[in-house]
Amino acid sequence: MIQRRVFLLAAMATAAGTVRLVQAGTNEVRISAKKFEFNPAEVRLKVGQPVVLVLTSEDRIHGFKVPDLGLRAEIVPGQETRVALTPDKTGQIVFFCDVFCGDGHEEMGGTLIVEA
Ligand SMILES: [Cu+2]
Fold it and tell me: Does residue 75 contact residue 59 with C-beta atoms inside 8 Å?
């Protein structure tokens, strides 16, 4: 997992369309999508710690859906899709592509592993 720290105070739109302030020191986690996988497919997060997922695509439009968090975003080649979230409990949260992208689409998913 690639992580880097952002020392910016920036207003960002989340996938839900609300605006929230991203605090200095918020971790960024980059996830790239391509047919038919996310890389990394397992992302470890800390409970209560704000994170920004930076989603990119290597080939075509994919979706990023996290039903348990009520999140959904589109991942468009040549763009960064930024999704801010703060996990509020430990456990595993499933995400998957919800834009049909070919024969392996149904298998295209991953897990956010939220640790204490
Ligand atoms: Cu897909």
Answer: no
